[in-house]
């Protein structure tokens, strides 16, 4: 068997086109475009690039962005004040605080200053608990993107065994909870898991969210399983041994062009959703 490709580039393009249409409709109704505030603290080159990409993509899809750039020396109190002001600004619909922030800052305190209705990156405890309770709210963008991909390819989740490798608060843990909300039976694996190969071999759906090149071997994959590789390692290498896994899986995400493009698309979709909710 050679796996079909889950084309994240195509799915994200479709989602962005729908989002741009909704942004245009909002702009006509509200007399202003949806607005995403991006907050960048310091000069980490990777963070600067990510924020620039998010702002460019916003602009291309009819969403304005308000860039807040703060120095490396910013204190927790100063950052919380900036985010609280954005939370209270009626012209701002979504707030993105670029991670990581300099080490003197209490990042959790800063995230918690984001109003739940503007938490379009799904980073607050409110959003996390709403997701756990399966209530409406914003989700962490990469897990939300993974769920979109599974839906776009009609992957049946109810009663299926999903194995999530990785348990970070922005990726592994929430994607497992979203799979559980869809009635999958979910197993989490992490760095202390002693029988990773055996666990993966049981999976109908595998989500790899580790950040270790080709940790998951093709020979472990159950024939017909669906493989979602969220890992992104230097040299465009995922967490799954791609060629060998494609021989066993029914569907697989490429790296790049699988999970990656979905994250910004979900961020913009959630920004427009926040803007629409402000008019309701
Ligand atoms: P992270 O915070 O470093 O978490 C990595 C997770 O992998 C941890 O839960 C860790 O376990 C687990 N792990 C480490 N070594 C392991 C091993 N040998 N066996 C099993 N589990 C192991 O990373 P992250 O932020 O979740 O990101 C994971 C990957 O996804 C990275 O490659 C990142 O670049 C990628 N990513 C992609 C996107 C995107 O496509 N847009 C977005 C976010 C992240 P412990 O908890 O026990 O330490």
Question: What this model shows, in words?
Answer:
With 280 residues, this protein is of the alpha/beta class. It has two domains: 30-115, Leucine Dehydrogenase, chain A, domain 1 (Rossmann fold), CATH 3.40.50.10860; 141-260, NAD(P)-binding Rossmann-like Domain (Rossmann fold, 3-Layer(aba) Sandwich). It has helices at residues 8-30, 45-60, 76-88, 107-112, 125-132, 141-152, 172-181, 196-201, 242-246, 260-279, and strands spanning 4-5, 35-41, 64-70, 94-97, 161-165, 185-189, 205-208, 226-229, 251-252. The chain has a six-stranded parallel beta sheet. Strands 3-2-4 form a three-stranded parallel beta sheet, with helices on both faces. The relative contact order is 0.17. The structure holds NADP nicotinamide-adenine-dinucleotide phosphate.
Order of helices and strands: EHEHEHEHHHEHEHEEHEH
Query: What structural class do the secondary elements suggest?
Result: alpha/beta
CATH superfamily of the largest domain: NAD(P)-binding Rossmann-like Domain
* Structure ligands: NADP nicotinamide-adenine-dinucleotide phosphate
CATH architecture of the largest domain: 3-Layer(aba) Sandwich
């Amino acid at each position: 068997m050679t796996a079909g490709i889950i084309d994240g580039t195509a799915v994200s393009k479709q989602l962005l086109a729908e989002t741009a249409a909704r942004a245009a409709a909002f702009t006509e109704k509200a007399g202003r475009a949806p607005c995403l505030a991006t907050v960048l603290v310091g000069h980490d080159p990777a963070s600067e690039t990510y924020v620039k990409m998010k702002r460019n993509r916003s602009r291309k899809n009819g969403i304005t962005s308000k860039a807040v750039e703060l120095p490396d020396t910013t204190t927790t109190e100063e950052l919380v004040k900036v985010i609280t002001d954005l939370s209270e600004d009626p012209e701002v619909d979504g707030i993105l605080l670029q991670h990581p922030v300099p080490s003197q800052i209490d990042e959790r305190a800063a995230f918690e200053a984001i109003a739940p209705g503007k938490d379009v990156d799904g980073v607050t405890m409110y959003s996390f608990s709403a997701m756990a309770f399966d209530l409406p709210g914003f989700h962490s963008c990469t897990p939300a993107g993974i769920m979109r991909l599974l839906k776009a390819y009609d992957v049946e989740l109810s009663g299926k065994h999903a194995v999530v490798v990785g348990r970070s608060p922005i990726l592994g843990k929430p994607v497992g909870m979203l799979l559980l909300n869809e009635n999958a039976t979910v197993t989490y694996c992490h760095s202390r898991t002693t029988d990773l190969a055996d666990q993966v071999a049981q999976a109908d759906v595998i989500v790899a969210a580790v950040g270790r090149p080709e940790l998951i071997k093709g020979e472990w994959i159950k024939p017909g399983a669906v493989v979602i590789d969220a890992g992104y390692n230097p040299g465009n290498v995922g967490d799954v041994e791609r060629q060998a896994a494609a021989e066993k899986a029914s569907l697989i995400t490429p790296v790049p062009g699988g999970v990656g493009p979905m994250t910004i698309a979900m961020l913009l979709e959630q920004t427009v959703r926040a803007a629409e909710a402000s008019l309701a």
